[in-house]
Design brief:
Elements lengths: L5 E8 L5 H10 L5 E9 L5 H6 L4 E6 L5 H19 L3 E4 L2 H13 L4 E5 L5 H5 L4 H10 L2 E4 L2 H9 L8 E3 L6 H4 L4 H11 L5 E6 L8 H14 L3 E6 L5 H10 L6 E4 L7 H5 L4 E4 L8 H8 L4 E4 L2 H6 L7 E3 L4 H15 L4 H13 L2 H15 L13
Parallel strand pairs: 1-2, 1-4, 2-3, 4-5, 5-6, 6-7, 8-9, 8-11, 9-10, 11-12, 12-13
Helix pairs in contact: 3-4, 4-6, 10-15, 13-16
């Protein structure tokens, strides 16, 4: 008689594809203990369908328009209920707010035994649309288990969303180290020539141009640094609603020659961009995790960051990076960048950060902790593959 597999259904909304879904699928493809299914709530046919086909997994598409949120969530809840009744997962695992509110209600009434939510966007409603926090609390109530992705996220879930502490598990996101660090010299040289970076001090930031990412603080700190050393170049990679405002601020300060606003960069080039940087700077007021901080650390780039997300969990101040107090962020950015440039002999700070990131944030670590959590919750299943990848 064949051993019964545990059937886990992952759900995601508003993204056509998600790198860490692919990373998890790659890790799980040879694990005979589990069966994976995926559901994507998206306005158009998602790329995730093709992504998962190559691993042999089903991916179901439910058409969902986030611009008609209330109607779309009601419709998606009924669709998910029908799907769960049909495919009968043992665990439904959601990841962001929209997919969670729909899938948790649907899986609850479909009698799914375990309902797990990864709080990938913790804090967004609290800071920007407080009236929706009540629904964050509803998600926490409906879930049997909650995954916080950083200590800060965990505190927010407990203190602001009033979740049951016994439900909460801390599992950091993981990244495939090899692909995250695949720098290419020809790509680096291309950007060095394009942006005239040779012999410059490059401080990089990769983030959306939105208020909570703190670009204004970076520009204000940069002005003072440039006054003391015109070799500084600040490389901004990202798009968003605040981009024109930040461009105008840089122009007002008459420091345009020291700033690069990069257009869209293909993902394959991102590791090489880190290779151009002397310092990676992260200015977010609040970050549930911050994958880009980890990517910088894995590439051996010293990180100067506000005390948030993965930086707060992993960086030992002045040893594996530099942590800044948000209340005096601009001054501390200046102090932090200055400290790194004076003390990073033989890239000792960058190398220390790299060691920490490799230990804490590998995709293997994330995968094994998820699998252990799944099997700890439904004891009917025999968990034979405790660590499928070493």
């Amino acid at each position: 008689m064949n051993k019964k597999q545990m059937h886990i259904c992952w759900v995601l909304a508003n993204n056509s594809s998600a790198p860490y879904f692919n990373w998890f699928a790659e890790q799980a493809k040879n694990n005979s203990d589990i069966k994976l299914s995926f559901v994507c709530l998206h306005s158009e046919k998602p790329k995730m369908i093709d992504d998962m086909q190559k691993y042999g997994y089903n991916c179901f598409w439910i058409k969902y328009d986030c611009h008609q949120r209330k109607r779309g969530l009601i419709r998606s809840t009924f669709k998910l209920y029908s799907l769960f009744r049909k495919i009968k997962p043992d665990i439904v695992h959601s990841h962001l707010f929209d997919d969670s509110i729909a899938s948790l209600i649907a899986s609850k009434i479909a009698f799914v035994k375990r309902r797990i939510i990864t709080k990938g966007d913790t804090g967004f409603h609290y800071y920007y649309t407080p009236k929706w926090v009540v629904f964050d609390k509803l998600n926490n109530f409906l879930a049997t288990d909650i995954i916080a992705i950083s200590e800060e996220s965990k505190r927010m879930i407990i203190e602001k969303e009033k979740a049951n502490l016994k439900k909460i598990n801390l599992i950091h996101h993981g990244i495939p180290i090899e692909s995250a660090t695949s720098q290419m010299e020809d790509v680096k040289n291309k950007y060095i020539e394009k942006w005239q970076l040779r012999d410059k001090i490059v401080v990089g930031t990769i983030a959306r141009f939105i208020e909570w990412k703190g670009y204004i603080h970076i520009v204000n700190a940069a002005e003072k640094l440039i006054q003391n050393n015109p070799l500084f170049v600040f490389l901004f990679v990202g798009n968003g609603e605040q981009k024109d405002e930040i461009r105008n601020l840089v122009a007002q300060k008459k420091i345009e020659e020291n700033f690069i606003f990069a257009d869209w960069i293909i993902p394959e080039d991102i590791p090489s961009l880190f290779g151009l940087m002397n310092v990676y700077l992260h200015a977010a007021k609040y970050e549930p995790f911050g994958l880009v901080i980890v990517e910088a650390m894995l590439n051996g780039i010293p990180v100067v960051s506000s005390n948030t997300g993965s930086a707060a969990d992993s960086i030992e101040h002045k040893k594996s990076g530099y942590i800044c107090n948000y209340d005096s962020l601009e001054k501390e950015f200046i102090d932090g960048i200055t400290f790194i440039l004076k003390n990073n002999t033989n890239n000792c700070i960058g190398n220390e950060g790299q060691k920490v990131a490799e230990k804490m944030f590998s995709i293997n670590e994330m995968y094994n902790k998820h699998i252990a959590l799944y099997f700890s919750k439904i004891r009917y299943f025999q968990y034979t593959t405790i660590k499928t990848h070493n």
